Amino acid sequence: MSAGSSRSVSVNPLPLGRLPYAESMLPRLAICAHATPTLAGTISLAREASGPVCIEYSFNPSDLSAALGDSAAIHRLAGDDVEIRFHFPLGRYELADLDEASADEALERFFSAIELVAKCGGTYLTIHAALHGGAHQYPVFARTKQRLRLLVERGHEVGVTVCIENLRWGLTSEPERFLELVEFADAAVTLDVGHAVSSETALARITTGAEFARMLAPRIVGAHVYDREDPHHIAPTDLDRIGDTLRVLLDETACRWWVIELFSAAEIRSTRALLLPLLREGLPGQPLGGPRP
After folding, report:
1. Strand partners, 31
2. So what's the pLDDT on residue 98?
3. What is the pLDDT of residues 269-291, one digit of tens each?
4. What is the pLDDT of residues 25-35, one digit of tens each?
5. Beta bridge pairs of residue 166
6. Total domains, the chain
7. What is the pLDDT of residues 154-201, one digit of tens each?
8. Which CA distances in Å does 167 have to 156, 211, 275, 292?
9. Per the domain annotation, does 55 fall within a domain?
10. What is the rounded CA–CA span in Å between residue 244 and residue 208?
11. Coil, strand or helix at 129
12. What's 116's domain CATH number?
């Protein structure tokens, strides 16, 4: 199937407002900690779906230690029924920097983030590697694989699973090269669905989002869910573009964590209303929403 085509997935969105969510439903639907201007507002938005409060917290690269206070505040506001996973944003510190001194500085920054995730009681951290297309032909690819392996090993030592996210462009948008990177480092994967379906390889009809997910399936432990990146994250109005990829995540992986990676309360609500029926009723093929391996 070409990257531009997708099987139509028809669901009836649930009414907006307080949505039914069974405790046993997997994957859990999370939102970003900075989805609203305040943590209290974000917790309130997360609670609208009933069930556990699930939050992805993005570090401030300039002030990593702020995560300690913010994590404590999330727990205080949400109570015991909360899960937080952590994310290091792309940009200022780059593991695949062509300048080795800068890449080493990023490595140390990521080491610090891993330690802070553990101190916050977290067990997952998602990072990126902005490798350009064709980077596998150059020393930067080997160096990045080694650095990522060191991060994964440090994470294992403190109980933190280090995940790497695919980007819309560059080497990590190419499933074979991305797989080579994660297998060498023994890293887990956060599949960015919006990146996968709007990547350079998808637009060139080399692969589809579903094929990308299937290749990485054994390593996928989390997902970022939205319709596409063009150039910003776009909320889905239906599941025609991402439905096949979600089907792979549900049927062929043990992924139990989907982050609705949008930053408008209205878009989060409408996307959640599209996704929850998949967990409650299932896509054609098998019922969904129960415990997974």
Report:
1. 55, 260
2. 87
3. 999 999 988 877 654 444 443 33
4. 578 999 999 99
5. none
6. 1
7. 999 999 999 999 998 888 898 998 999 999 999 999 999 999 999 888
8. 24, 15, 23, 27
9. yes
10. 9
11. coil
12. 3.20.20.150
| pLDDT (tens digit per residue) in 208-257 | 999 999 999 999 999 999 999 888 999 999 999 999 999 999 999 999 99
Residue 235, CA atoms < 13 Å, CB-side half-sphere: 16
Report the percentage of the chain scoring pLDDT > 90.
Answer: 66
Report whether the peptide linkage leading into residue 287 is cis, meaning its omega lies within 30 degrees of zero.
no
- 103 in a domain, yes or no? yes
Q: Which residues contact 185 (CB under 8 A, 6 or more apart)?
A: 145, 148, 149, 151, 152, 164
Residues 6+ apart with CB under 8 A from 67: 57, 59, 60, 86, 116, 117, 120
The parent domain of residue 159 ranges over 28-280
Fill in the amino acid letter for 289: G
Distance CA 291, CA 26 (A): 6
Contacts of 138 (CB under 8 A, 6+ apart): none
Residue at 125 is within a domain: yes
Q: How many CB atoms lie within 10 A of CB 138?
A: 12
The answer to whether residue 140 is domain-embedded is: yes
Start-to-end C-alpha separation, the chain: 29
pLDDT of 4 above 50:
no
C-alpha distance from residue 149 to each of 102, 119, 126, 158, 232 (Å): 18, 21, 14, 15, 30
